[in-house]
């Protein structure tokens, strides 16, 4: 049994190391790409056309960086869930172990008393009992009584044996779970390191992007490109959304929905973003890694990286209503998945080139953005 447990733990550890090595190779490749682009930017600093080209390359690299962060964050989150589940199972096993120990002690005490009583009563010669002067009825009662005591002792011995066997099985299960727990802890440590490395790589890429956006004209152009990307995705989402009678939309939920995450509103719907560009959603500043929840039940119709908004999820709620969640660290759902009201669908992050963790949240009706504050309380 122990051999199988250690073999399983070795397989798990081997898988973890292989996965970690593959991620490191990908990270090294992207670091090499970044150094190459940095050299080109330095050599072509005064060439606006070339700078724009390098910005596009950096944006593509940022996408890779943030997608890698999303994968690493997903693995870290999976490790946390696994750790929590195994810890809960171990706690349950420990409670059961204590119960079995108590039962074993009680059974041992009962059996000890029965054996002591049998010893004090002495050995009974049934032939003498038959030949003595006692009545047959008395002898019959005595025989039934002694048979009862004998059966009780046999029952007590069997119960003690079963409890001991259960206790041994439970101890093996505890050992197995402890091995799994150790493997998950190692995995979590490695995934946390991988996540930190990916975030460091992303920051270097982001620094280079900021160098290409030094003037307001370039910044405005960037926002326009991002708006156009979002508009295209929303239009595609509207086409992809199919009529489903079970989805009732959000019309009757105005002022009744909860915000998708707890945080401070830093940008409000309709406020100026840059020039004529206004915010079409609400930005909530919140701790990185905090859960993002679906504001209502629906179906995921988009879940991917989008320029300027990072890891984005769009959920269709029916009747032309949809909600959009951006800047996520990682997404838990994919296109085609259904979500429940209040279900965790992502984690707060800073994807899309954000310097601070936040959630970009929109509600749209028939493709047009509406103020989320009219629906969320």
Automatic annotation (TrEMBL):
Gene Ontology terms for molecular function: metalloendopeptidase activity
SUPFAM superfamilies in alphabetical order: Duplicated hybrid motif (SSF51261)
Chain coiled-coil ranges: 34-103, 153-226
Signal peptide coordinates: 1-24
Residues covered by the M23ase beta-sheet core domain: 279-372
Source domain of life: Bacteria
Record-linked CDD domains: M23_peptidase
Record flagged with keyword Transferase: no
Pfam families, per the entry: Peptidase_M23
Keywords: Coiled coil, Signal
Keyword Cytoplasm: no
PANTHER family documented for this protein: MUREIN HYDROLASE ACTIVATOR ENVC, PEPTIDASE-RELATED
Protein name (record): Peptidoglycan DD-metalloendopeptidase family protein
Species per Swiss-Prot/TrEMBL record: Shewanella gaetbuli
Species lineage: Bacteria, Pseudomonadati, Pseudomonadota, Gammaproteobacteria, Alteromonadales
